[in-house]
From TrEMBL:
The chain crosses the membrane at residues 64-84, 111-130, 136-153, 173-198, 234-263, 275-299, 328-346. Keywords: Membrane, Transmembrane, Transmembrane helix. This is Uncharacterized membrane protein YjgN (DUF898 family). The keyword Hydrolase does not apply. It comes from the Bacteria. InterPro entries: DUF898. It comes from Shinella granuli. The keyword Transcription does not apply.
Length: 398
């Protein structure tokens, strides 16, 4: 969930050096709200606040050309070009994510990403060589990763924020390694130890760490999702898991005589008797994977809505998200199926389809004069923008 949340903030608050106006496209439906609030808008100076949706203007046909070149060059360079491929991909998606008629921009350079990856790869290689030469240090790589991971996550989020801009003003991220340890390491550990019961608490920690440490033009975001709504979303996912396991139990019960016969006397079943057992087993595995996949997607969509809608900017402008769980799940699953059936060639279509749906069900409820707000932000943001240009750091891939 953390990845989705930071991408949401950084990609739609997750390119060229000058913002460009883009025509908004597609409509959005907000369940349970007044549809008139979602009229597309570009905010001229003096325009009053209100809800303004994000639009995504990318097209699969356009992105396919970028994607296929990225794939071919990554293969030809044995993966080295993947760093530049990430830059081209993000510039396309950020540049087609539009709020108030202006797109977001991505300023990272391929070399920064490549150096970050090489540093991490080199560290892993050295640690594994040491562990191989000194068997008593076999756990050293794992320990170093656990210690370094929070720092790498914090640095990665800071890099992602600082190479992202809107209206020529850079974002920033001020979270430290301590907060990353609590949100990602401790939270994940608690979720695993409690068999998922404390997953909503971990989701809350991640959302608060990312959202509340994000800055734009010197002004702060604040995120404080409540545990009640998070647990409601988690319980819905739990019910899906229980339903799926119930179906698997029913399949096993219907085939119990054959299962017992196979256990008691191995090889006693004829080929004709083994066929229905094989089919039942295959169906059981499909149901198992589908159950946990659907459950996870339902939870992810629910947390996205809760976290975004619990986020404010500058203490008064509220983010909103109303992604339909069923629609989000259907898009994600059908994207995977279509991509597999076309041997990956429909991956650009799937990526654009998901981006359009999620961003066009996201927006900001502004308070006060929008033109005045961004005039102040642009004036303040230009003073710190030059610092970020010289201190972006490297992307470590976390």
């Amino acid at each position: 969930m953390g990845a989705l949340f930071i991408a949401g903030f950084l990609c739609s608050a997750k390119n060229s050096h000058t913002a460009r106006p883009v025509k908004p496209s597609c409509s959005m439906h907000l369940e349970g709200a007044n549809d008139m609030a979602f009229a597309a808008s570009a905010a001229p100076a003096g325009q009053a606040g209100g809800f303004h949706r994000i639009t995504f203007t990318g097209k699969a046909s356009e992105y396919f050309g970028i994607w296929i070149v990225n794939v071919l060059l990554t293969i030809l360079t044995l993966g080295i070009y993947s760093a530049w491929a990430k830059v081209r991909r993000n510039r396309y998606f950020y540049g087609n994510t539009v709020l108030l008629g202006r797109s977001f921009e991505y300023h990272a350079k391929g070399l920064q990403i490549l150096i970050g990856r090489l540093i991490v790869l080199g560290a892993f290689v050295v640690l594994n060589i040491i562990a191989t030469l000194v068997p008593i240090l076999v756990l050293l790589p794992t320990l170093v990763v656990l210690i370094a991971l929070p720092w790498l996550v914090a640095k990665g989020l800071r890099f992602s924020a600082r190479v992202t801009s809107y209206r020529n003003v850079r974002f920033d991220f001020v979270g430290g390694a301590g907060g990353a340890f609590k949100a990602f390491i401790l939270g994940s550990l608690l979720a695993v130890i409690t068999i998922g019961i404390l997953t909503p608490l971990a989701s809350r920690w991640v959302s608060r760490y990312i959202g509340s440490n994000l800055r734009y033009g010197g002004k702060a975001f604040d995120t404080d999702p409540k545990l009640g709504p998070l647990y409601k979303s988690w319980l819905l996912s739990l019910l899906i898991v229980i339903l799926g396991l119930g179906i698997i139990a029913l399949i096993a019960f219907l085939n119990l005589p054959l299962i017992l016969a196979m256990i008691e006397t191995p090889g006693a079943l004829s080929p004709e008797q083994q066929i229905p057992l094989f089919i039942a087993g295959a169906i059981g595995y499909i149901v198992l994977f589908a159950t946990f996949g659907i459950s996870g997607l339902f939870y992810r969509a629910g947390v996205r809505n809760i976290a975004w809608s619990a986020t404010t900017f500058d203490g008064q402008h509220r983010m909103l998200s109303d992604v339909s769980r069923t629609r989000y799940t259907w898009i994600a699953i059908s994207n995977v199926i279509v991509t597999l059936l076309t041997f990956g060639l429909m991956r650009p279509w799937a990526a654009v389809r998901m981006a359009r749906y999620t961003w066009e069900h996201t927006g900001v409820n502004f308070t006060g004069d929008i033109g005045e707000l961004f005039s102040r932000i642009e004036a303040q943001g230009s003073a710190v923008g030059s610092e970020f240009m010289d201190f972006e750091g490297f992307d470590f891939g976390f």
